[in-house]
Specification:
Helices cover about 5% and strands about 55% of the residues. By secondary structure, it is mainly β.
Length: about 750
């Protein structure tokens, strides 16, 4: 029945695209690339708007925009972006043709009376309700937990839950941490964390933009159930050599960039830890952190709008105590990639990516015989090619092909004390197609389908087809109604104990070929809008339901070799989200709220996972009181997270005297904790305020920036967990001031 329904859906896509192909050509289109006039970098999230027609587009990560279905004749188009001077250009549309119109935008001096309504998210994602872009400027607005960090900024968004101050690990709409696909310039990153997860391996200075897809994915995305984090790095300065040197209480870092031959650019970012006293306040113990990361990129021009880029990422972490009794932890990433972006004949957009990624994590017991060694290694070869065809009436066709050839090596001792040491090879080969109908304004519709070619012939062929639907309707120029549906699958999981407060080591393993994939259906409905009487204010309201099946969980009840290592579970997550954002050259405001419910069912047992937070609330306010000054404040609130309550203690006897002849009558035993029903308790509510202030000093050739941040300003005692050995309450981060210095040239 599933195959028949999917086939009908695919036929409907083809028929819908052919019905409108013969529409009379009385309109045309305009496309182009928007760049920064000083650095030559391509600008994303630029509003390109034809005011008289009430239509427009926002540039993507490549600075590219396309507006179709424009009536023939002369028109005026306006390009705007906060922090840049507005540009207005004239152009003429010829029926059946697409005009090229590029923009070079100049950074503008801040003025109190310069305000542009910012609807770039709503315009850029016209049929995607749950995609949120985050710019480099927005990352810097969130007060720093030692250093600016993308993942700490993501945690501000509605639908995203972070369970502690200690880790920047996040959970999206009831999904596990391994259900987030992390992409850096087309390269898959399997371990994106430094220092036990306190912050990410992506230096904020090297990031240009990130797209956060929380559900309802378009057809080009797959192989994860909950979210896609698509990160793009800065391209580098095409016009001159420049750089930044920074030092914090944790690390030192440098970023340098400059031009290359063939109208190109390059960028290199390096960060190395030097101090760990501040990080030890996060984990509340003496932990010798040592980490580094390197991000590099080089680009050359391949025509008027084309670009060929090389990318790389290296990172490493090592935690080794002076005591031989403490285990040693090691993590490393190495990734290389090449991408090509090209516009052909004004109507075809080609994007290709080829990459290799390696992740390796090891736990070494050293002299501690009570700890078992663990190993997780992934080698991943990935290719993705996509073509988009733009019609002058605004419609778009997209198609793509991808293959992934991962190899996994993992070693661990399971809960029944049996050692597993395996290497597995896997393959994923997929095709996707989508059709976006935009010629009948104010209605827009995107139909898509994604399929894994090899899965079609497998015993689980029902897993091979993933229909995708996105719908948009512009109620007015300032309000859009949107809805989406997506089916997604995932054949890769991590071995983690859901009861661990902080997961120190995660092992990636693939699902066996004869086993069904993890599966989820996303249902989302909502509205996007701007408030006309408050320039720059936009909002987003969403309701969602996610139904998850065949989830793989570690079998904690395994007692002998015949018991399975893993069990299957079902899951549901649903809720409501609100997001309000105000952008102005001199101030910024954000309010986000989430109401969410998440549950898991294993057999006949249903429980709430530890990241099931009922209420989440965030407020961010940023202000530039004078030239060179930035003041930012964040306040967050989260209702209590689930935990398993301690019901008592007893002395556990091991009867060792039966074997050594001494008997067991006098054995004292060892204290053992008794727990109640799983996750039926709730921790106290969490709330915290962070404040940061920075001042820039401009000299002739150098700019110096000094910043002070204070985390947990009013020293709230937020509970982390109960120590199951002693029953003692352990709290999270106390008040913590930090200082950062940066030199730009």
């Amino acid at each position: 029945m599933k195959r028949f329904a999917t086939a009908c859906f695919f036929i409907a896509v083809l028929l819908s695209s052919s019905v409108f192909t013969g529409h009379a050509q009385t309109s045309g289109g305009v496309r182009g690339v928007v760049t920064d006039s000083l650095t030559g970098e391509r600008l994303s999230l630029v509003n390109v708007y034809i005011t008289a027609q009430g239509i427009g587009a926002a540039t993507d990560g490549n600075g590219f925009y396309f507006i179709g279905n424009i009536p023939a004749g002369k028109h005026s188009v306006r390009a705007t972006l906060i922090g840049y001077g507005q540009q207005v250009r004239e152009f003429e549309v010829v029926p059946g043709k697409i005009v090229t119109l590029n923009f070079q935008m100049s950074p503008a001096v801040l003025e109190m009376d310069v305000v542009e309504t910012t609807a770039e998210r709503r315009v850029r994602y016209d049929t995607e309700i749950s995609t949120q872009p985050i710019s480099a400027a927005e990352i810097s607005i969130v007060p720093k937990a030692v250093e600016a960090d993308l993942f700490r900024t993501i945690a501000v968004l509605p639908g995203v839950v972070a369970t502690s101050d200690v880790s920047s690990q996040f959970y999206v709409r009831g999904g596990g941490g391994d259900q987030n696909l992390i992409i850096l310039d087309g390269m898959t990153i399997y371990n994106p964390f430094h220092a036990l997860g306190i912050f990410s391996i992506f230096d904020a200075d090297a990031i240009k933009e990130a797209e956060i897809l929380k559900g309802g994915f378009p057809a080009q995305w797959g192989n994860r159930l909950s979210s896609v984090i698509n990160i793009r790095t800065r391209e580098g300065n095409k016009n001159r050599f420049s750089g930044k040197l920074s030092v914090s209480q944790v690390s030192g870092k440098a970023l340098v960039e400059g031009p290359t031959p063939w109208d190109g650019s390059w960028m290199l970012s390096v960060r190395k830890s030097f101090f760990d006293e501040v990080l030890q306040k996060f984990v509340r113990q003496q932990t010798p952190f040592d980490f580094y990361d390197v991000i590099g990129r080089a680009n050359v021009s391949t025509g008027e709008s084309g670009r060929l880029s090389l990318h790389t990422l290296f990172s490493g972490d090592n935690i080794r105590s002076d005591s031989d009794f403490d285990p040693e932890y090691q993590w490393s990433n190495a990734a290389y990639g090449m991408s090509w972006f090209q516009v052909l004949e004004n109507k075809y957009l080609i994007e290709t990516t080829f990459s290799f990624s390696n992740f390796k994590g090891e736990l070494k017991p050293r002299a501690n015989s009570l700890i078992n060694p663990r190993l997780s290694e992934v080698n991943d070869v990935y290719f993705n090619g996509a073509v988009t065809y733009f019609r002058d009436n605004g419609d778009q066709y997209g198609a793509g092909f991808m293959f992934r050839l991962p190899e996994y090596h993992f070693a661990f001792v399971n809960s029944a004390n049996y050692k597993r040491d395996e290497s597995r090879k896997n393959s994923e080969t997929g095709i996707w197609f989508k059709y976006k109908l935009k010629q009948f304004r104010p209605f827009s519709l995107e139909l898509g389908i994604r399929s894994d070619i090899f899965s079609v012939l497998s015993p689980n062929s029902a897993d091979a087809f993933e229909p995708r639907i996105g719908l948009g309707y512009d109620v007015s120029k300032a309000l859009s109604f949107k809805a989406s549906y997506a089916r997604v699958h995932q054949r890769l999981v991590t071995i983690t104990n859901e009861d661990d407060v902080v997961s120190l080591f995660e092992t990636w393993i693939p699902i066996l070929d004869d086993q069904p994939s993890q599966e989820a259906d996303h249902y989302i409905i909502g509205v996007d809008g701007d408030v006309g009487w408050v320039p720059g204010l936009n909002f987003n309201l969403q309701g969602y339901f996610k139904d998850m099946r065949n989830l793989v969980e570690y079998n904690r009840d395994k007692v002998d070799s015949k018991d399975p290592d893993f069990v299957r579970a079902e899951g549901r997550s649903y809720g409501f989200e609100a997001f309000i954002e105000e952008k102005h050259p001199r101030y910024y405001g954000l309010i986000s709220y989430s109401l969410s419910y998440t549950e898991r069912t294993v057999g006949d047992f249903t429980y709430s996972p530890r990241y099931d937070r009922r209420h989440s609330f965030n407020i961010i306010v940023g202000w530039k009181p004078a030239e060179g000054w930035d003041i930012n404040v964040r306040w967050e609130y989260g209702s209590g997270l689930p935990f398993s309550q301690i019901t008592g203690f007893y002395d556990r006897l091991f009867f060792n005297g039966l074997f050594d002849g001494s008997g067991y009558i006098g054995e004292a035993g060892q204290p053992y904790t008794m727990l109640g029903s799983k996750n039926t308790g709730r921790l106290p509510a969490y709330h915290r305020m962070d404040v940061s202030a920075s001042k820039a000093f401009q000299f002739e050739w150098v700019r110096l920036v000094a910043e002070v941040s204070v985390l947990n300003v009013y020293d709230r005692n937020n509970m982390f967990y109960y120590d199951r050995t002693t029953g003692e309450r352990i709290d999270m981060l106390p008040i913590l001031p930090t200082v950062n210095l940066r030199v730009e040239f």
